[in-house]
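User: I'm putting together a small comparison set for a docking exercise, and I want a reference complex before I start. The sequence is below, and the ligand is zinc ion. Could you produce the 3D structure with the ligand included, as C-alpha cells?
Assistant: Of course. I'll restate your input first, then give the C-alpha cells for the complex.
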Amino acid sequence: MIIMPDEKTWPVSITPDNYPEFISKSSKHLTRKGEDLAGYFKEEPEPEVLIYEVYEAETEGHIKMALTVLKPGKVGNEFHMTKGHYHEDDKAGEAYVCFRGQGMVIMQTREGKTDEIPLKPGGLAYIPPGWAHRTINTGSDEFIMLALYPETSGHDYDSIQEKGFIKRVFDMDGQVQVI
Ligand code: S6P
Ligand code: ZN
C-alpha cells in the first residue's frame, strides 16, 4: 500500500520504516517543551527544551491515531516523559505500538494500583480502561510510538497535574529505576 503525502484517506499501513509518512497525513501537531511540563519533574526543566511532539490524524470512524516522538534526555536524573493522563471515558482503553527507541509506559488506577510495560521496537502495550498512562524514554535515541484509542476517549490531565504519578522513572548510576 502506497501512502500519498497530504492525502487524508485511509486505510493505511504504518511500519517502523514508513512512519514518517504518517506525519505528512497528520492534521494536528503538538509540541511539549520544558515550559509546558513545569511542575511535572522532580527538578524544573529548561523552558525552551523540546521534550516531545505529537502528531494526530483525523481518521474516519471510531479509532484515532497519534504518533508521539519523545526526545532522549533527562531533567536532573529523571528520564524525559509525557504529561500522562486518564481518559475521561473510563471505558476507553488504548494500545501503544513502539516503532523506535527504548522506553516504557507507566500506568496507575485511581484506586492506587500501578504497573509498567517496557517497550522496544515491535512491542505493543495495552492500556486497560481506567488506567492513567505516561510514556518514558529510557534510551539514548528518540522513542517513537503510535497510539490507537477511541475518538470519544477525552483526556483528563488535571488529575495527574494535581497529584502526579505514584511511580517515577530515574537514572540511578546508569540503571533505570522505577521508584
Ligand atoms: C492519547 C495517547 C497519546 C498521548 C501522547 C502524549 O490518548 O495516550 O497520543 O496523548 O503520547 O502524551 P500526553 O499525556 O501529553 O497526552
Ligand atoms: Zn491516552
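The mean pLDDT is 94. The chain has one domain: 29-178.
User: Thanks, that's exactly what I needed.
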